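Box S1 | Example of a co-folding query
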Amino acid sequence: MRAFRCHRGPPVSVSAASVTATGTLYVVATPIGNLDDISARALRILREVALIAAEDTRHSIRLLQHFGIATPLAACHEHNERDEGGRFLTRLLAGEDVALISDAGTPLISDPGFHLVRQARAAGVRVVPVPGACALIAALSAAGLPSDRFSFEGFLPAKTVGRQARLQQVAEDSRTLIFYEAPHRILECLADMREVFGADRPAVLGRELTKTFETLKGLPLGELHDWVAADSNQQRGECVVLVAGWQAPEGDEAISGEALRVLDLLLGEMPLKRAAALAAEITGVRKNLLYQVALERQKDA
Ligand code: SAM
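Box S1 (continued) | Returned holo structure for S-adenosylmethionine
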């Protein structure tokens, strides 16, 4: 007899013969560029499991070959994850260990794996994280922006209207904001951030982290946009954008009662963005500041 803890409820005693131990699903982080960043534990687990569920088997085979690992691979990507998850579950429930990896970094972080992990946990399978590289954490750890509280926003919508709308939702968040972005959209993305957060908001671009041409450039958003625009090399490779959180205005930045009255009058007559722009022209207060205040007033209304 041995103690057995099922996934809900207290430990129960069962006879060994009646227990079929399930396998373990290991969620294994792989490098985001520099292959030396893989952990010794990750390598051992990738060697020992019965099967590796990989986002792109053709991509991962190169990583495994580099480390001399011959474990069989099977595809687990966003298009088959829901339907094919059962295939991995069957193996796990039969007692085999499976490792989940993505093309780079930590699975599930803007990568496939969520459905499989959820299904495995629901079926009572033990799910074990094997931590390692993650672009957002690597960038945050070296960006010099407040790291005590942050919000990971993943990828923004591809088109300006959707992107600006999403940015507006977090414009008043006081936490450091972290975004993933594709290189061919980095300039438009920085332009929209400048528009919504204001040109003065501190930001950091983390590009090609852990690779040969690693860049971590910190500048106010307006200057960062211009710096990237002036150098096409900065528009290549993989990037993370970090933006300092919103800070409530103080002292000289405080808005006078008169400026607020103008803003409120205009808000009653026209869309928010236009009202903030016009109020800025009339009162001389910064447009972005009025925009943030207008957002707050609309929320409170
Ligand atoms: N799962 C990964 C992780 O843990 O970071 C992220 C996968 S997501 C599909 C890919 C995005 O992550 C890229 O478009 C980029 O925004 C970011 N990224 C990945 N590797 C990076 C690197 N070496 N430097 C900067 N950003 C990177």
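The longest strand covers residues 150-155. The domain at 20-133 is CATH 3.40.1010.10 (Cobalt-precorrin-4 Transmethylase; domain 1).
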